[in-house]
Amino acid sequence: MLTRLRVRNFKRFDEADIELGQSVVLIGANNCGKTTALQALALWDIGRRRWFEKREGKTSPEKRPGVTINRRDLISIPVPNASLLWRDMRVRSGEQLLVEEKGERKQKTKTTNIRVDVIVDGVTNGREWSCGFEFDYANEESFYCRPLRSANGERVDRMPVPLESKTVSVAFLPPMSGLAGVEAVAEPGRINVLIGEGRTAEVLRNLCYQLCPPQGPEGTWEALGGHIKALFGVELLAPKHIPERGEITMQYREPSGTRLDLSSSGRGLQQTLLLLAHLYANPKTVLLLDEPDAHLEILRQRQTYKLLTDVALEQESQIVAASHSEVVLNEAADRDVVIAFVGKPHRIGGRGSQVLKALCEIGFEDYYQAEQTGWVLYLEGSTDLAILQAFAHALGHDAVETLNRPFIHYVGNNPREAQQHFFGLQEAKSDLLGVALFDRLPQELPADFGARGLTGLVWRRREIENYLCSEEVLLAYARHDLGDDLFGQAEADRRVKLMSQVIDEVSQALETLGKPAPWSPDTKATDDFLDPLFQKYFNRLELPNLLRKSDYHVLASLVPSDEIDPEVREKLDVFRAVAARACPRSD
């Protein structure tokens, strides 16, 4: 089993140190380095295999012999140019030196190679080992691989390549890419190449065919079929080799008895079948799975992850999976290794850790966002965020960027819910900051609300919609989407007149009911005024209601910037200030 991965100068990584275990889940945003970590293991694997193929048992006069690897050998890391394996594509560095030649001092550039280092630690048959390789750029098509240098006093020599590492098998699997209507027979080497290139659509039937008697180990096909039946209720039928066409066909039987080609199955079934077939076809292997939860709905994600880890244990295999699924993360949290790719990759807690205790109810997705942003914004709902974004844009306020990608949690108008979530999350990230913005409350915020970095704000008017509710804005909405031609102008005049009539009617109704006027700060603008206003307005136009509460941010964009209440800017200033003080994880 592999226990640790250390990487330097590889693709996205300047330097990374990643703990591994029996089952490992890598989490993080898109393009944060999860797949890079899987590819680093794949690079180490190809370097190790080439080394044993070319150098095992041989003596060499060279102090540090190496082997050449062609970029086309990188089945799991397809790149058009070998330099793409190096961080920022920097394969060499230059150092300016002053040298003396013929009595003159001249400046020369000393060029040195930048090396990619990949070190893997493991345990085999109870013995610990460490195996590191360095990779030197040669040209666009190839590079050199050698055992990593190690310092021994003043002497620099190569690390030994432990024989225990020779028995390690590594296999990479990208997500299911769909299923080809016709699948040609492929040799094992060709199957590996297609998988490495992400062409999983062309190998699924071949993988299954390898597991059927007499090719596959006894009982393997039956076990695979049993899992698929338990999960999806269908019976897999053995693949058939059609020599005349050089093809493999495969069907499944529905509960009704109908036989269908495998291409008729859903993407979730195909994804699960790919994972299990790959697992059974590669026993005693380190399986690198890129987004194994792809195409699976929530319940299937949990079932499939548990099944994969159970089968991997039976097969004496190890799983390293990159995932976006919160379901998978929470399933893995208590028993497996979870690595967060925020700043430098790091393990999230461990069994019994304070982080795990704090996140039992909060969830790893929230913890990940807290580390990524360093602060959290609490609002009533998504409409509030859209209105705030529209106001910030209209004002040209710096908070536009702050609100574009916030870590946001919706709590209704409940201060205690915001506190409970924030303080629980702060147990996992002690320097977390927060801002909570509420509609006007019937009583003051709790006395302890501002403790421990959580800032509480309350609108002075009844709710946020009060700040976009004015007659001028409503009349602007009536004509905002009409053209400047004669028809558009005539229709705009008609709609403005109609909107004025509806405003008067709803205003009179509020007065009759003894409720505050539409423009009063005490009016519940949404329920008492805007909702009935737009329902009546669109009824008069003989149109369906095109502006409901979820779309009221459109009105915010129509408020003239010089008429936006100064209180809105005050709130945006607080958001910007808190975001500026926040400490996202960067190491």
Task: Describe what this molecule looks like in 3D.
- By secondary structure, the chain is of the alpha/beta class.
- Among the domains are: 182-281, no CATH class; 368-461 and 567-581, Rossmann fold (3-Layer(aba) Sandwich), CATH 3.40.50; 466-564.
- Helix content is 36%, strand content 23%.
- Helix 6 links the parallel strand 19 and strand 20 (318-323).
- Residues 152-156 have low confidence and may be disordered.
Topology readout:
Blueprint: E1 2-10, E2 13-19, E3 23-27, H1 34-55, E4 67-70, E5 92-101, E6 104-113, E7 116-124, E8 127-139, E9 142-147, E10 149-152, E11 155-158, E12 170-173, E13 183-184, H2 188-196, H3 204-211, H4 220-232, E14 235-236, E15 240-242, E16 247-249, E17 251-253, E18 259-261, H5 267-281, E19 286-290, H6 298-314, E20 318-323, H7 326-333, E21 337-340, E22 346-347, H8 354-358, H9 364-373, E23 375-379, H10 382-395, H11 399-404, E24 408-410, H12 415-428, E25 433-438, E26 454-458, H13 471-479, H14 486-512, H15 525-540, H16 553-556, H17 566-581
Parallel strand pairs: 3-20, 3-21, 12-19, 19-20, 23-24, 23-25, 25-26
Antiparallel strand pairs: 1-2, 1-7, 4-9, 5-6, 7-8, 8-9, 10-11, 13-16, 14-17, 15-16, 17-18, 21-22
Helix pairs in contact: 3-5, 4-5, 5-6, 13-14, 14-15
